[in-house]
Amino acid sequence: MSDDRGSQETSTTVRRFCKMKRRLRWAFALLTVLAAGSGMLPSLLRADELRERLKDANGVQTDVWVYNDIPAAMQEAHRTGKPLFVTFRCVPCRDCAAFDADVANGSDQVRQFAKDRFISVRQVEMKGVDLTQFQFDYDLNWAAIFLNADGVVYARYGTQSAEGSDAYNSVEGLITTMQRVLEMHGQYPGNLNELSAKRGETKPGNDALKLPGLRNPEKYARETTRSNCIHCHNIHDAEHLQALKEGNYTPDRLWKFPLPDLIGMKIDRRDGTRVSEILPESAAAAAGLKAGEQILRMNGQRIASIADMQWVLHHLPGTKTQVEVESSESGKQTLLLPDGWRKHDFSWRGSMWNAPPRLAVWLPELTGDSLTKLGLPDGDGALEARWINQDSEGGRQAYRDGLREKDIVVALAGQSVRMNSRQFNAHLKLNYKVGDVLPLTILRDGKREELKLRLVE
What is the pLDDT of residue 277? Predict the structure, then answer.
């Protein structure tokens, strides 16, 4: 009796499953026809293919994000009247991966804002992106731009420094910026005068593939994969190379997107506009700004985040200049900035490595027992030549001048090495130029040798 009942239940379950399967097939077929008729299907298939090639595990919320299709999102923003929230993510890069996961596929709060209040885009490659419309700090591994469907930029979000890739980014800070953007959107176009300067000047080429200084454009023009992706920092690389060809490159270009700390304002990183500290003897202190104030505008531009402040400061010269800061209590104040105010530690930047001069040698620092065994004085460090890139002219020249893999660099220009690999390369960029000779002291088989490497690129 029980066996018969079990058999009947199994038979019923199978029939139900088959019926549901037929319905799902019919629904999928209908969706396919509708998508094909509307022109959506090719776009959806392209998105799926790109997501698979890049192994983009965080790009799965297809009901929230328009995937890598800014023009389609702009059309939808026109139709709905919603503002655009465009995120740029370099999928192959590990930096910012945790924050990216929180934003794209984790935080319920971000998901609700992104789905209900914005037309949201997950852009995972720079090919085809309008570089005049979408200007930001291209050395970031994650960045966001908020804009109106007509192209007016409301705000930027995403900041990085030598402290680490996620030292400034948080879901709380992003949500706070999104709330400010919605307020601006509600006031638009009455507030156009404080937004117009947030869009940059026309870029030469206007497309990453067309930048005159881009190395190997034919390689990047092929189908995008994890190993064939135009990283955002490649745009800065192209700008550096073009400036070098034109004879107007200077190391000052490396001090990009200065933090407000450099003018004396430390900003609460989760709020984005509230001053947490005024640094003594700074331009902000001299102007009378106070901790606890909200920064409302800088040079007339509405401020919604630290990245907005960096955008204003980025467009100021590094020589003696001034910037107008409007705050919630002090009102409008003019800050007088001294010569060299932009200088800071840029060693975290991906675009630093391709800035001239390029040694084209991987020199990671030695630590722990490996460093102790060298018997160097306390405080001294060492860098090991792990790889010499002989596909590069700089690497070939270093090899011709005597450098070998496993050589240990212990001094530069007679001074002990007291820096890590990134700092060594930053020092190189700031103190040497193409054509100079780099004097290194190395240890090889326990013996000291002096090398002079000519910098050729």
Answer: 98
Cis peptide before 189 (omega within 30 of 0): yes
**Rounded distance, CA 85 to CA 118, Å?**
6
Q: Which two tokens stand for residue 67?
A: 């995937």
Predicted confidence at residue 260, as pLDDT, reads 98
Please give the backbone phi and psi of residue 34, each rounded to the nearest 5 degrees, phi first.
-65, -45
Q: Does pTM surpass 0.85?
A: yes
CATH number among 3.40.50.261, 3.40.30.10, 3.40.50.10790, 1.10.3720.10, domain 42-208 = 3.40.30.10
Closest to 384 in 3D by CA, of 361, 402, 400, 354: 361
Question: What is the 3-state secondary structure of 41-56?
Answer: HHHHHHHHHHHHHHCC
Output the pLDDT for position 250.
92
In this structure, the dihedral spanned by the alpha carbons of residues 292, 294, 300 and 304, taken in order and rounded to 10 degrees, is 140
Tokens of 314: 């980025």
Backbone angles phi, psi at 273, to 5 degrees: -135, -10
pLDDT at site 365: 96
CB-based contact 180:304 (threshold 8 Å): yes
* Residue ranges for the chain with pLDDT beneath 50: 1-41
* Distance of alpha carbon 58 from alpha carbon 78, whole angstroms: 27
What is the DSSP-derived secondary structure letter of residue 293?
A: P
d(CA 454, CA 325): 46
The kind and range of the H/E element at 22 are: helix 2-38
CA dist list (Å): 298 to 132, 259, 354: 22, 13, 32
Task: Give the homologous superfamily in CATH for domain 356-454.
Answer: PDZ domain (2.30.42.10)
* Cα–Cα distance, 389 to 17 (Å, whole number): 59
Token readout for 421 is 């690999």
Rounded distance between C-alpha atoms, residue 396 and residue 146, angstroms: 45
Give 341-362 pLDDT, tens digit per residue.
999 999 999 999 989 999 999 9
Annotation: CATH topology of 260-337: Pdz3 Domain (2.30.42)
Strands (E), 16-99: 65-67, 84-89
Q: What is the pLDDT of residue 12?
A: 44
What pLDDT shows up at residue 45? 62
| Alpha-carbon gap, residue 200 to 235, rounded angstroms | 15
In the chain, count of helices (H) and strands (E)?
13, 18
Placement of tokens 């430390």 in the chain: 266
User: According to the model, what pLDDT value does residue 44 have?
Assistant: 54
Q: Tokens representing 383?
A: 């860098």
